User: Fold this.
Amino acid sequence: MSAATIDTVPVEETVVVKNWKNTIIFGVLALVALLLVAFKAPHNDVTFRLSDGITWANIPNLTFSATAFGWIATLVLLAIAALSAVQMNSGKKLGKGLTAVFWVFFILFILVWAIGSAKSSEVSLVNLLSGGLALSIPMIFGSMGGLLCERSGIVNIAIEGQLLFGAFSAVLVGSITHNPWAGLLAAMLGGVLVSFLLALFSIKYIVDQTIVGVVVNVLVSGLTGFLFTRVLQPDAQNLNSAPKLPSFEIPVLSQIPVVGPVLFNQSVLVYLMYIVVALIWFALNKSKWGLRTRAVGEHPKAADTLGVNVNRLRFTNVLWAGAVAGMGGAFFTLVSVSSFNADMTAGQGYIALAALIFGRWKPMGALFASILFGFSLQMQFILSILGTAIPAEFLAMLPYVVTILAVAGVVGRSRGPAASGQPYIKG
Assistant:
C-alpha cells in the first residue's frame, strides 16, 4: 500500500458518551438543600450525646447550630454539583471520592435539618447508630444470601420470602421449645426450604428465575398469613411468644467511646453477622469454592469445561443462601419482637436486593449499603419520637426513597455477574 493510499484511509474518531444522570441528581439534591435552608431553616441547635453506654468517661455533648451547618453543607453540595457539571461537559467523570463526599454531606444535612426542626433536638448518637446497625441485620443477611445466589448465576428475588418464612419458623419452633437457639436453627431451615423451591424450578426445570422468585414470595406471604391466622393467633401464648436471643457486651471493646457501644454491645445475632460476612468474603475471594462460584456466575461453560458441575454448585449455593437469609428472618421474631405478624418483613427483602446491587455484588459493599438502609429506618423512628415537622407518611417512605436514590444515583452502570439469570444446559 502506497503512502498516498495510507493518507486517504479515514481515521475513526472516538465518541465520548456523556451520562448526565449523576450530575442532574447532584444538582437537584443541592437545590433541595438550598431551598430547605433558605426558606425553612431549622430553629434549634442540635445536640448529640456521645457518652451514652460509656461508664468510665464523661464525654461532653456535641452541640452546634443546625442553620450554620445547613449552609456549610449546602455550599459543599452546590460546589460538588457544579464541579460534576464542568467535568461532565469536558467528557470526564466526577471522582469516586467527591461522589462519596457529596452523599455523606447530603445525608448529614438531612439528619441535622430534620433534628434541628423537631420539637426536641437532642439525640443520643450511640442509640442512633446502634439502632441503625440492629435494624440493618435482616438486610445484611438477606443481601449476603442474594450475593451467594447471584455470584453463582441465579437471580434471587425470593429474599423477601426467605426472610418471612425464617421469621415464621423461628417464632413457631422457639415458642414450642422455649429455646431461641432452636428457633434460630428453624429459621435457617425455613430459609433453606424456600431456597429449595427457587433452585428446583429455576435450575432443574429452567423456569424464568425472576418469575419463580416473585411467585415464591407471594406463596410464602399467603402461606404464613394463613398459618398466622389459623394456627398462631388462636394459641398465641404457646405458639407465638418465642424467647429472645441473648444480648451481651464484649468487655473492654464495648467501652470505646461511641464505637464500642454501637459495635460491641449488641444481640448475639449481630456478632453472628460479623462472622458470616467475614466468612463469605474470605470464601468468595480466597478459596477454591469461591473461584468456582465466581467462574460459574461469569462463564458457566468455561467452568464446565474445567470439570465444575455448574448446576450442582448453583443448587448448593442457593440452599446456603437460604440458610443465611433465614438467619436474617430470625431477627424479626427472636430479636426485635417475640411474636410473628403477617408480612412483618415489610419489603426488607427487596431492600436487601437493592443493597446487593448498590454494593456492586461484593460482600463489603452489600454490608455498608444495608447499614445505610438500616440507618434510614432508624431515622424514621427517631424523628417520629422527636416530633419533627416532617409528615409521618413521608417518614414511612424514607427507607424506600433512600433505596431509590442510592441505586439510581450511585450505582450507575454497575455490571452484575455476566451469567446471572441465565440457565445452564449442559451439552
